[in-house]
Design brief:
Number of helices: 13
Distance between the termini: 21 Å
Largest sheet: none
Length: 296
């Protein structure tokens, strides 16, 4: 008889290494339902944003399509691509963070289930889209202003502000209330958070190189003299735009690692401050324990 799999606990204090491990263990267990939610809910927006960003890069590099149509056409196409890429980027990060945090919220608050449907996640996500999108704008502006004043303030506030959208979704708070709570929780843990994000982003960056492989293969063939790939106009070709869109899609999906890490880091800090998980576990002392094969 197969043993029942222990549900991963978020509100638990873990060592640095265990925290990294549990992020990837959660992603491993929930990969298929979570990726399904992301593809269906966010996939089209990511594809359009990636294509617009690739087109913008081609325009800026001077290799934009339809150069013979004149300067106005070039300017209009690059401006339109920039607007689409900018709005798309905001919407992508709004949906990415909200979908991941909504899934985690359902995971934490539904003790008898481990996975959730697209409909359930979307039902929870759509309640927070507007608030989270406004929050992302405020967060980016706050970090930019902090960096303009001095680099250090920008870096400092970026850590607590990274938890603001999570708190909005998980605890149903407004942006300012969420930001204040984030600063209070991070106050004694800033360096711990910084180190955790630093290592997590290194891992994420290394994994991201997988998505560059098709683009690198094409460039290798071009270097070997395969002019049929597009020659000097390759950067303005549909193939180049498509390959770059693929890279952007991969980068966006990999951001899930950061958002899941965000959730584990936040709940660890809350547990250290408020011991909510410990109090909950104490209530179960003396009750029968399930026959589990792992303890997370």
């Amino acid at each position: 008889m197969a043993k029942k799999l222990t549900k991963i606990e978020f509100d638990r204090v873990r060592s640095f290494g265990d925290r990294l491990n549990v992020v990837f263990e959660f992603l491993r267990r929930n990969f298929l339902p979570l990726i399904k939610c992301m593809i269906i809910i966010i996939g089209p927006v990511i594809a359009v944003t990636g294509a617009a960003a690739a087109l913008l890069i081609a325009s800026i590099s001077g290799n934009t399509p339809n150069l013979n149509d004149g300067v106005f056409s070039v300017f209009f196409s690059s401006t339109l691509a920039g607007v689409v890429a900018g709005v798309g980027l905001l919407l992508v990060y709004t949906l990415l963070s909200t979908v991941v945090y909504s899934y985690v919220h359902l995971y934490i608050t539904t003790p008898d289930r481990h996975t959730f449907t697209v409909e359930e996640v979307w039902r929870h996500t759509r309640k927070h889209i507007f608030g989270v999108s406004v929050a992302w704008v405020a967060i980016v502006l706050g970090i930019i202003i902090g960096c303009v004043m001095l680099i250090v303030p920008g870096v400092y506030i970026s850590i607590p502000l990274s938890f603001a959208t999570l708190i909005m979704v998980m605890e149903k708070r407004g942006f300012w209330e969420a930001a204040n709570r984030a600063f209070a929780v991070v106050k004694e843990n800033w360096w711990n958070c910084f180190g955790f994000y630093f290592v997590l982003n290194i891992i994420q960056s290394v994994i991201s190189y997988v998505f560059y492989i098709p683009l690198l293969i094409v460039f290798v063939f071009m270097t070997l003299g395969t002019d049929r790939m597009g020659g000097d106009n390759f950067e303005s070709s549909a193939l180049y735009i498509g390959l770059n869109a693929f890279v952007y899609v991969g980068q966006f999906f990999l951001s899930t690692i950061t958002f899941v890490g965000n959730a584990f880091q936040y709940y660890q800090m809350v547990e250290e401050r408020e011991s909510t998980g410990l109090i909950s576990r104490l209530a179960y002392i003396g009750q029968p324990v399930a026959d589990d094969d792992e303890d997370f």
